[in-house]
Specification:
Radius of gyration: 41 Å
Oligomer: single chain
Order of helices and strands: HHHHEEHEE
Number of strands: 4
Helix content: over 70%
Strand content: 5-15%
Structural class: mainly alpha
Largest sheet: 4 strands, mixed
Number of helices: 5
Length: 245
């Protein structure tokens, strides 16, 4: 491939901008708030699991309380019915039977009310547990909001620089011949983000290998407009007065 020395040197400007964009992307992805936010997310996941269990226990207690309340209503209705029947019967046999049943119902009602009190305490305790978990989640959410605000503020500065760098890159890329730019992009993809490197004192700044022997001689013999590549890392070698050829 042929390209003027000036166009080849523009690749170094482009590479510098691409390297800066990589650095900014890395810094955006590794802001100091990232670790604490990840830990808070884990905590919130664990707390959500605990809450699900607590809510399950609360719902069970409420269901049991509702059943007991229904049973109490049934017994109270039977007591009221038998009491009314007792007031309107003159049969000694019926009176004895009703009084016996009323005594049993009174015992049943007392037992149910005792159970109701126990379950009501369970419901109150379970509600307190859920409320405590909700308070913990609210505290986590507050911490997350603060950290996200700090992260977004820090990211805004990086994003502004990234946008400016991307605009500069577009200008430089637009000045480079399409075939040379495409070749650079290909080398950059294969070279881990580095597509062109300065040859400085016979050393490739891309892989830090110093050219010797036939490799060095081949580069020396190449015309100034010949696009040469590092024999070690295959990146484009840009020659300048610093190359030591």
């Amino acid at each position: 491939m042929k390209a003027s020395p000036a166009d080849q040197q523009e690749l170094l400007r482009l590479q510098s901008l691409d390297t800066r964009l990589q650095q900014l992307a890395h810094r955006l992805g590794s802001l100091p708030q990232a670790g604490p936010l990840a830990e808070l997310a884990k905590r919130d996941t664990a707390v959500r699991g605990t809450r699900a269990e607590a809510v399950g226990g609360l719902e069970d207690a409420r269901a049991e309380l509702k059943r007991l309340e229904s049973d109490v209503q049934v017994v109270e209705a039977r007591i009221a019915r038998d009491g009314d029947r007792l007031q309107h019967t003159s049969s000694t046999k019926d009176v004895a039977a009703l009084e016996s049943e009323l005594a049993s119902l009174a015992k049943r009602l007392s037992d149910l009310e005792d159970q109701e009190l126990v379950v009501m305490e369970r419901v109150e305790s379970a509600e307190a547990v859920v409320a405590g978990i909700d308070d913990e989640r609210a505290s986590i959410a507050a911490e997350v909001a603060v950290l996200e605000g700090q992260r977004d503020e820090a990211a805004a500065g990086f994003a502004t620089e990234r946008d400016a760098t991307e605009r500069d890159r577009a200008v430089v890329a637009g000045s480079i011949p399409a075939d040379l730019l495409a070749f650079y992009e290909q080398r950059r993809t294969r070279g881990g983000g580095v597509g062109a490197a300065l040859l400085s004192q016979r050393t490739c700044n891309g892989c830090t290998i110093t050219l010797t022997g036939s490799d060095l001689e081949k580069v020396r013999r190449s015309a100034p407009d010949e696009v040469v590549q590092c024999p070690e890392c295959d990146r484009i070698l840009v020659r300048t007065e610093e190359s030591g050829l």
